[in-house]
Design goal:
Blueprint lengths: L1 E9 L8 E6 L7 H11 L4 E5 L6 E6 L4 E2 L3 H13 L7 E6 L2 E8 L2 E5 L4 E3 L5 H8 L12 E4 L3 E6 L3 H6 L4 H11 L3 E6 L9 E7 L4 E4 L3 H13 L7 E6 L7 E7 L3 E5 L1 E10 L1
Parallel strand pairs: 2-3, 4-6, 11-12, 13-15
Antiparallel strand pairs: 1-2, 1-18, 3-4, 4-5, 6-7, 7-8, 8-17, 9-10, 10-11, 12-13, 13-14, 15-16, 16-17
Length: about 280
């Protein structure tokens, strides 16, 4: 059996930027074991597998190189960008079945917008000192705001940092981050600051996810959505729509559009960079 695949850069319209995702559109006949092997072979932080659904327009499953996850923002943006470009989609609003629930997708010009699951907030027990040590920074460089785990599909730990310079220069200890993630049952560290490189962006961020086999994720959809829920909860938003920048420190910069109304939506552009086939 020959399986077509795509590599797509999400949250950018430029090749070799943003966050690359693997996409397999014809996954109905694939077992979980084969999907995991394909994801490991493609080596993207996540690979999305599209299949038929009895509950929505499509079902999508997501695999990192080492495990299946309930949801992935950038791989979703990449998936529906491909389907739109290939003429598969026949409408602008679609429902996607995932392990995080049935979520809405909207085609809005060149951007794909993805609805997020209802936020879940979780307190953590790890001290600020231990978090700072894992990030390779001083404790005083963490801003005087809550450190809180939030999920709109996957749990990430929102860590406010005072300055852009601190985020740019931090040298994380990925084993320590992984230990904390395991202990607190969260997927990643999401560090952010209100100091940005682009004037039209509200947030600058980095995402460390060694638990998923990805030390640093270039541009992260679900973590930006979880951060949006955190910002709304703590009255830190200036508008119900903003842009977040991520990936600059590793040369994979991208921009995430965030909308917060009755539901949180994240979105962005995408760019197909590779097509191929895998023989199973």
């Amino acid at each position: 059996m020959t399986i077509p695949f795509y590599i797509v850069n999400a949250f950018t319209d430029k090749r070799f930027k943003g966050n690359p995702a693997g996409i397999v559109l014809q996954a109905n006949e694939l077992s979980k074991e084969i999907m995991q092997k394909i994801a490991a072979e493609l080596k993207c932080s996540e690979t999305a597998f599209v299949m038929n659904s009895k509950r929505a327009d499509y079902m999508v499953r997501f695999f990192t190189p080492v495990k299946e996850v309930d949801l992935c923002g950038h791989a979703t943006i990449a998936t529906f960008h491909v389907m739109n470009k290939e003429g598969i989609l026949r409408k602008e609003k679609i429902e996607m079945e995932t392990k995080a629930g049935i979520l809405g997708i909207e085609i809005k010009g060149e951007e794909i917008l993805m609805e997020q699951a209802k936020p879940i907030f979780k307190e953590i027990k790890i001290t600020r000192k231990r978090i700072a040590e894992a990030l390779g920074i001083n404790e005083y460089e963490i801003a005087d705001l809550p450190i809180e785990a939030v999920s709109t599909g996957l749990f990430s730990l929102n860590i406010p940092i005072k300055s852009l310079q601190t985020i740019q220069n931090m040298k994380p200890d990925f084993e320590k981050i992984k230990e904390i993630c395991v202990a607190e049952e969260i997927g990643s560290f999401f560090v952010f600051t209100f100091e940005t490189i682009n004037k039209d962006c509200f947030i600058h961020a980095r995402c460390f996810a060694p638990l998923y086999g990805v030390n640093e994720d270039p541009v992260t959809g679900t973590a930006n959505a979880a951060l949006a829920a955190y910002l709304a909860k703590h009255d830190l938003l200036k508008n119900n729509m903003y842009k977040a920048e991520q990936g600059y420190e590793i040369g994979r910069e991208g921009i995430v559009t965030v909308e917060i109304n009755d539901k949180i939506k994240i979105g962005g552009k995408a760019c197909i960079v590779m097509k191929g086939t895998i023989d199973i």
